[in-house]
Specification:
The chain is α+β, with helices and mostly antiparallel strands and 173 residues long. The chain contains 3 helices and 8 strands, in the order ααββββββββα. The protein starts with a helix and ends with a helix.
Amino acid sequence: MKTVMAALVVLVLFVPSVSFAQLTWCLDLDEIRASVQDGAILITHQVAEYNCCPDSFTYEVAQEGGILRVTERENLTLPCYCFCCYDLGVMIHGMAPGDYEIHFSWYDYEYWIWRTELRTVTIPEDLPPGPRPILETFASACLDAQSVPEPGDPDEPPAGTWGRIKSLFHRGE
């Protein structure tokens, strides 16, 4: 009987706590969207999990007829021992009117594999491309599981601010 009681105590000690759930809130929530805005193709990757200390995020775009292969990459010089979730995106300007099949790829740290999702968009004939840079990229600060403020919300952190974990890591706390 004493052996059974000891085993039960060990099992209770390894039950994930609320803090573990808060750290993993964004697992498997990647959402890829593609749309057309002002004649440009906008691709967003919401709740993307990457290292919490990236130098930047970049995109490689290759066109083969009506197929666009878009690869999202994080650039790391000195990675931290933590992960964050981000809202990322790229706007591709200068595309001719027509139908496009987008093959969007990223490295998924949740499964340690490259993933690809397909999306389709149509650039209408009446929307000529404007004189803008070919690629524009954007990235949020590290997202928080408790409250992701809407744009313009007074509690929204300034773009490029660091999350709490990253700040502690770099200050050595």
